[in-house]
Amino acid sequence: MSGILPSYIQGAWWTPADDAGATDVRDASTGEVVARVSTAGLDLGAALEYARTVGQASIGALTFHERAVLLKKLALALTERKDELYALSARTGATKADSWVDIDGGIGVLFSYSGKARREMPNTRVFVDGPVEPLSKDGSFLGRHIYTRLPGVAVQVNAFNFPVWGSLEKFAPAFLAGMPTLVKPATPTGYLAEAFVRILVDSGLLPDGALQLVSGSVPGLFDHLRLGDIVGFTGSATTAEMLRAHDSVQTGGVRFTSETDSINASVLGPDAVAGTPEFEAYVRQLVTEMTSKAGQKCTAIRRALVPAASVDAVIEAVRARIAERVVVGDPRADGVTMGPLASTAQRDDVLAQVARLEAAGGEVVIGSTGTPSVTRADGSVGESPDGAFVTPLMLRFADAAADAVHQLEAFGPVASVLAYDTVAEAADLVARGGGSLVTSIATHDPEVALELMSRISAFNGRVLLLDRDDARSSTGHGSPLPNLVHGGPGRAGGGEELGGIRAVLHHMQRTAVQGSPEMLTALTGVWHAGAAANSAGRHPFRKSLAELRIGDQIVSASREVTLADIETFAHFTGDTFYAHMDEEAAAANPFFPGRVAHGYLLVSWAAGLFVDPEPGPVLANYGLENLRFLTPVSPGDEIRVELTAKQITPRETDEYGEVRWDAVIRNQKDEVVAQYDVLTLVAKQLAAA
Ligand code: NDP
Fold first, then answer.
1. Which domains does the chain have, with CATH numbers?
2. 253, 263, 367, 452: which has the fewest Cβ within 10 Å?
3. Which stretches of sequence are listed as region Disordered (predicted)?
């Protein structure tokens, strides 16, 4: 008999005093007991409080970049021991390819978030959102939006299908935001979640209280939640509905996002007839989505929308590809390409859903609902009733408008083919899903893509356009990517677990702050025009990152602009645009008084005015942002520049950091001629002489 699967609570592994009432968890192929789970006697309230106190304090001490670096180290720790995870994953029914999505996919999420956070977030603890909003004429009263982390715990309630990836996709953004996580995996595959958490704990890298795991059920969990906590749920719409109805969510201010059943569609464009690359790609993708992870993917294609004239061709092509490629059996046997479902309960549930689809007019045209003959672990072939096996199943609906096909999810290797006559009708059918995670469109006709997109975007979290140009490089209909939104409207749950930095901000509160430039500078760590600046002492280019402070400034001397300069610049660069070269034509232009200086000439001169040329800590200029030319400059005008250190971002893993400078070019009347941000890399320390 297997022992009780431990939970990781308050910094220690925990198991109940005895196994009374424990649930058996079984190998998906053989029915053998893999683990037993029980949370009898577990103090959930104390675990949550530990996260809110110890976890919040330890992660809160780190900046976004420090957290990002830790994520990368955690990813490396998992990579080193991923063989252990693969071995266990086979017990859940996952083939090697399925496990790759779950395990390497999960590790990949950590790597991606680590890189994105270091590129796209400041090395601070507060995230500034959007530009300054001027609120007074004299610039003494400004508005700015800032994000600060939620003060509670990020609770994950996960589905059984991706115990590693499903958890890491939520953990990464929560951790970056600065929130501790409590993971509650689904019981049937919780032993794989326990294994990855154990690797992370063993690594010694996790800040105290950053991650806790509950192996087993969580009665009363929501009674302990309060304002400042967030729940990310993945699973059935029924459970989501029940949890969302809890008082803590309804009136207690607990954030609740969910990802639930999604009846995703894949549309074959009218142009993509048999023989076209789009038709081939459509069929390949459909079979992949039906069989990968035995169809137990929230993103799998459930509805294949096909022009009426192509329905038979699609069914035949799918049948042929399944016959050629798909071998159902124990994932540990050679040659098996599709494993069982996660549990016999899940198998029974899928078959019951298929029966409902048949009762609603669906005809099974590929596969059968009987007990299949499968490849066993020892390579023999035959029935294996203790395993949760089903064959890939395709149904055909004569009536594409039948409610059931748009509402019932058979969470297994099951898809239905529906015929459509017009693109508008196809779009209506997509929308009948009531909100989906993803739809794909196989077409090489931009008109078809445009018409569908304009009608279905609002019903989807993601849309994949598949054609001959991207069929080989496409990451596929069913693959959520950490940098793109994963979640969808309506019955898909409305959540957004992934989506790059958007998902991090999900775990933070956006607050509009109104105040003076001085206050906003102090609060955000970003210099705001109007706050104190320091132009005394050494030129800021002579200061290392350790010495430079925001507000350090250089105010340049003035330089006169002459017609000869403009002409020289024009001929030197080849930019002889009439506004610089032809007095009469320039004067006829509503924006110019006559010939004017090139904007690029002014920006180049500004660099010459603010630069300190000797070798020093400034290593490189890597770009300009937000450049605007605001006032034309005529021959005889004078310009000068003010350059102020606006934001300093040390890089955790390099000997230098980024400095964003506020650059303002003014004319002799003090009017702003141009403004922009200059981006430089600056050494952390001055090189030893
Ligand atoms: P459930 O909704 O039953 O379970 C999902 C998670 O919720 C599990 O971790 C489960 O824990 C937990 N849970 C259940 N009841 C409670 C509760 N009262 N309080 C807190 N947590 C609770 O979904 P299943 O995993 O059983 O899957 C059923 C169906 O959900 C599938 O057939 C499919 O239709 C859909 N599904 C959708 C997915 C998606 O990504 N969109 C993914 C997986 C499933 P425990 O396991 O311990 O009961």
1. 7-260+502-506 (3.40.605.10), 264-480 (3.40.309.10), 533-683 (3.10.129.10)
2. 253
3. 470-492
